[in-house]
Design brief:
By secondary structure, the protein is an alpha+beta fold. It is 23% helix and 20% strand.
């Protein structure tokens, strides 16, 4: 993990820190101003680089021993030595120039890791029960202990956050002094917090003030209506951003547990590296930062670096010609609404077309080839094509984050909280992962005949109505979403592909040598696309052991489909599962539960939503035909 940043927020020299393991990031914080006679950084711990994208990104809370911190904005990250990650397609759609790996500390170069700041500011002492800002306890640097009774302090369990990403300390003073006109903190009293121990509920958490007001329990603090009646509004605070002023906010805040999973949701965008940028001259030009450079600069750069040309077997004139061709191409500017579709459409075309191995792994990150066996074994299942993705690279970038309810793919970016304070930000944190996979596409004619069946459409419409109701409910709960049109992408094709991906991942986890949590899905579902990529993608070599690619051979894939469909035809929760009209979180599943098709959240790109086994095998009554009904 890293180091917290406490006010005043001034850059400090890195002190003596132990060497980090590869891929680990240190979180650091400058000491308080009153102790800054000998500048140094306090090391809190380490996290993996990937966790700074998925779990402990900007704005997330980190608990370290008996302290709590919030990860600082990108403005405070020292990326001078952070490796750059190249993925031109993703950079274009996100509007940035580049991506960078989260920085790791280097004591020899004086580079620190990721900064964090103390949050929440309120702490309590279990000895004297005092509840007040941390700096008032008089704790020594590097410790969180009460200066009076020498007990370990405890960070506030409760914080206040809104759907726009703002977060602040819970207003304990207003909670206790409800109905009084005295300005906050001017009653002259000291707040205390104690646990009476009678129950495990909020009723046993008692907050009081020695100014004479009655003690109040925390019961009801999590009701938004209660906070609104007390006049508690969002203060627009962004403590993860250095010296950021509070901004106007009309959202109604809600109380949350400091360790709640609703405190922070990453908004990640990812893309596969596909030709032309994944290999050959294009990859070379991008790595050497020669995209858009004048012809003279390109020629001079590579004429003195001929060793760079030998691995990809090209000449200097080939490189110059390609650089000129790229500079004359008009850059693609997709609208935010179709960003996801543009990336997926390009990937789908590359997966269908294939890409044989031409270069070494360092110069070709995408290898996709058809299997060598007879495909007739899988065509009887309505599978039109099967491709073995022997090498792939995925770049995952953190675009923003949200608080409150988990984001949906179809939601707009209005709830996105900023990672930067500066308006001139031109990079985002990202990680690159390598792996392998199998791509399956469905037979277009058979799929069209199935998805136009009135019974299939009617069943899919149940999910679509539930999804629209959820989107409308979320839009109505925010000030900027009221009255905004909502649209659902749920269709028979999408539900079929999503459910198929889950049953295959579950089956391959038994045969492919990978735990199911190490497998991921990537869906391609639209009027022009009907495919699914199941792949492994890890930050080390474990993602390319060959176990998943072997499952894509036609005979083995046919056997897997037979077994997966047999498992999907029965669930231990039937008949409740298969006859369910709405299941799962937010009621956006039908015949899908943890006993049949739900998988770890790391494997699913749709939060285990929009699935129905009946789309695969049909309903028990036979009213709704499954796509694979003829194969059972």
């Amino acid at each position: 993990m890293g180091h917290p940043v406490e006010p005043p927020r001034r850059r400090c020299r890195v002190g003596s820190l132990p060497r980090q393991q590869p891929g680990q990031v240190t979180v650091m914080t400058p000491p308080p101003a009153r102790l800054r006679l000998a500048p140094r950084l306090r090391k809190l711990g380490v996290v993996r680089r990937s966790q700074l994208i998925t779990t402990y990104g900007v704005g997330a809370l980190i608990a370290v021993d008996n302290e709590s911190f919030i990860v600082s904005g990108l403005d405070s990250w020292d990326t001078s030595a952070a490796p750059e990650v190249f993925e031109r397609r993703l950079a274009q759609v996100l509007g940035v120039k580049s991506f960078r790996l989260p920085p790791t500390p280097d004591t020899d170069e004086g580079v620190d890791g990721v900064r964090v700041r103390r949050f929440p500011e309120f702490y309590s002492c279990p000895g004297c029960c005092v509840l007040q800002p941390f700096f008032r306890f008089g704790s020594l640097a590097g410790r969180a202990r009460c200066g009076e009774c020498d007990e370990d302090l405890v960070p506030s369990r409760f914080v206040l956050a809104c759907d726009d990403g703002h977060i602040e300390d819970f207003p304990y003073w207003k909670w206790v002094h409800r109905g009084q006109n005295t300005a906050s903190g001017l009653c002259g009293g000291t707040l205390t917090l104690r646990i009476d121990g009678n129950t495990a509920s909020l009723r046993s958490v008692i907050v009081s003030c020695d100014c004479g007001v009655s003690a109040v329990s925390m019961e009801g603090a999590f009701r938004a209506k209660t906070l609104k009646e007390l006049g508690i509004r969002c203060g627009g605070r962004r403590p993860w951003l250095k010296e950021a002023a509070a901004e106007p906010c009309s959202q109604q805040p809600r109380a949350m547990q400091r360790g709640s999973s609703s405190i922070w949701h990453p908004v990640m965008r990812s893309a596969l590296s596909i030709p032309p940028w994944s290999e050959g001259i294009d990859a070379l030009l991008e790595r050497e930062r020669m995209i858009g450079a004048p012809e003279e600069a390109v020629r001079w750069h590579f004429s003195s670096r001929s060793a760079l040309l030998r691995p990809i077997k090209v000449t200097l004139e080939d490189v110059v010609a390609r650089a000129l061709a790229i500079s004359t191409e008009a850059p693609k500017q997709p609208s935010p609404a179709d960003t996801h579709d543009v990336l997926r459409q390009e990937e789908y075309e590359s997966l269908v077309r294939g890409n044989p191995e031409k270069h070494a792994s360092g110069w070709q990150s995408f290898v996709c080839e058809p299997p060598t066996g007879d495909r007739s074994a899988v065509r009887q299942f309505g599978i039109d094509g099967c491709m073995l993705v022997k090498r792939l690279r995925e770049v995952r970038a953190l675009q923003a984050f949200m608080r409150g309810v988990a984001p949906l793919e179809s939601e707009s970016g209005q709830r996105h909280a900023k990672l930067w304070l500066s308006a001139e930000a031109d990079w985002l944190p990202a990680v690159e992962v390598n792996g392998e996979g199998v791509f399956i596409s469905l037979d277009a004619d058979r799929l069209h005949a199935w998805e136009t069946d009135p019974a299939v459409i009617a069943r899919s419409e149940q999910l679509r109505r539930n999804h629209l109701a959820l989107l409308e409910q979320r839009a109505a709960s925010t000030s900027h979403g009221k009255g905004a049109p909502v649209e659902s992408y749920v269709s028979p094709r999408f539900v079929l592909l999503h459910t198929l991906a889950h049953v295959l991942m579950d089956e391959w986890s038994l045969d492919g040598g990978y735990p199911v949590s190490a497998l991921r899905e990537r869906l391609y579902a639209s009027e022009e696309m009907a495919g699914v990529l199941i792949y492994t993608a890890t930050s080390d070599s474990a993602g390319s052991l060959g176990g998943i690619v072997a499952q894509g051979e036609p005979q083995r894939l046919a056997s897997t489909l037979n077994s997966a469909l047999a498992r999907a035809s029965w669930c231990s929760n039937d008949p409740l599962c298969v006859e369910s009209a709405a299941s799962g979180v937010d009621s956006v599943n039908l015949a899908a539960c943890h006993a049949c098709v739900l998988l770890p959240e790391t494997s699913c790109e749709n939060n285990n939503s929009f699935m129905d086994r009946a789309m695969l095998i049909g309903t028990p009554s036979g009213d709704v035909p499954g796509y694979f009904r003829a194969c059972l």
